[in-house]
Each structure stands twice: as C-alpha cells, then as structure tokens.
Amino acid sequence: MNKVPSKNSGFSLLEILISLVIMSVGMMGLAGLKMIAINGGNEAHFRHEASLLMMDLADSMRANLDAVDNGDYLNTNAVALTPIPKICEGTTSCSSTELATYDKYRVALRLSQAVVGSTLTIQCPAGDCSTAGSASGFRQEHTIKITWKVKKDKSEDRSIADVNNDNDNHIRSVELKVTP
User: Fold this and answer.
1) Contact between 58 and 178 (Cβ < 8 Å)
2) DSSP 115
3) Which domain holds residue 99?
4) Contact present, 79 and 120 (Cβ < 8 Å)
5) For residue 92, pLDDT beyond 80
6) Would residue 29 count as lying in a domain?
7) Pick from 90, 177, 83: nearest CA to 139
C-alpha cells in the first residue's frame, strides 16, 4: 500500500527561520536584563560596603572621645591616603589625635579597595567638630559621607562633551549622621 505524502508533513525553511529570529530577539532581551541586574548588584554592593565602613568609623569615634572632643575627626576634604600615619594597632602607643588620624586612614584605605574612586569626608554643621566649637559644650553631630562615581549607561542622554569627564558619571553617596 502506497501512502500519499500530505502537504503538512513538516516544517518549512521559512518557518524555521522565523522561529530563530523570534528566539534570538528574546535571548538579546534576556542578556540586557542580565546586564541591568549585574549593575544593580554592583550598586547594592558598593552601598553595603560604604555603610559598613561608615559604621566602623562611627564606632571608632565612640571609642576615642578625647579626639572627638578635640575635633580631630573633622575632615571636610577627602581623607588622604598619603602620607601613611603612625600605625596604632597592637602594642603601639598612640595619642588620641594619632589614633583619630589612623582611624580615618584605615577606613579610607579599606574604602578605596572596596569602592574604587570613592572619597570619605567627615563634617560638622558649624565646621568645627570640637566641643569648644559647640555653643552648648556637648558633642556635635558628625556627618560621615562617602561618595563615588558610576559611569552613565550608554542609553542615557549624553553629549560628546560628556565623554571622559564628570558629566559622563553619576555621583552616588551615602551619609551617616552620628553624635559620638
């Protein structure tokens, strides 16, 4: 017995090509979503690291109240990584001022390793963090701030002048207000 082949016996080349195009567009969309998820994960990681380091510095300030009272933790510009201060760990004897300088350096160094291109600043409302600069004689609120730059996405509005300058970046920051 001979079978007569039917017209609908399989897929045509055109149907296969159309399905491949549809699948490739879907895969490109998934790849884009993956990039957005990676960038979001990096942003969350940077914020987490910055928050931990700010809390570490706040704890160090609470442990060194003499330096807080003297205003030694004030640093309105970015904390410098050079020159390397006296290391105040272990059996080394340090003054409260040396310990404050080392605390700022230690946190800024860890920050530079965790969040590339970041800056650490410590400010007080009146610009003087000492208890002598306070009208009430009480310890003032310190603002610990960490900022870093994140490159703009290619899809965001930017001009030719923006490329390779500060306009090509988003400035991100995290602040912690603490009264030691």
Assistant:
1) yes
2) S
3) 49-178
4) yes
5) no
6) no
7) 177
CB 137 within 8 Å of CB 117: no
- The distance from CA 123 to its chain's CA centroid, rounded to whole angstroms, is 19
Pick from 102, 142, 97, 99: which is nearest to 122 by CA? 142
Q: In terms of DSSP bridges, do strands 142-151 and 169-178 run parallel, antiparallel, or are they unpaired? A: antiparallel
Q: Residue ranges of the alpha helices (H) in 64-116? A: 65-70, 96-114
Query: 32-77: per-residue pLDDT in tens?
Result: 999 889 888 888 999 999 999 999 999 999 999 999 988 899 888 8
Task: Give, for 60, the enclosing helix (H) or strand (E).
Answer: helix 13-63
Least confident of 36-40, 118-122, 129-133: 129-133
89 occurs within a structural domain? yes
Into how many domains does the chain fold? Answer: 1
First to last CA, the chain: 96
In a domain, 25, yes or no: no
**What digits encode the pLDDT tens for the residues 154-173?**
666 555 555 555 567 788 89
**b/e code 22-54 from CB counts within 10 Å (16+ = b):** eeeeeeeeeeeeeeeeeeeeeeeebbebbeebb
* Amino acid residing at 29: G
